[in-house]
Amino acid sequence: MRTSVVLIVVTAVVLSVTSAAWSFECPARIEEAKKAIQKAEAALDKAKAAARAAARGPLNKAKEMLSHAEAEHKGAGQDVKKHAEAVREARTAQGYAEEARIIAEKF
Fold this sequence. Notes:
Layout lengths: L1 H45 L2 H26 L5 H27 L1
């Protein structure tokens, strides 16, 4: 019985710490996405016209996802699910930015 109570208390503490961690993870992921977008824009500036045209779509999608992530984080408050969505959107934005950078550099 005592072991069960201790296990429940430990689980509750871990879950409360984990939920607070999401709010701290959002700004870091958003910053990573911003840096990836900056790198993609720099690569687009050096790219040929065909590569620029091909990379513009993913870059615009990255910017759109980043703005969604920032808005989601700003309005999340203590809602863990909204923070998780902001992290997902920031990581997706980073992926689109990386795609645009690779297209611009390798096309």
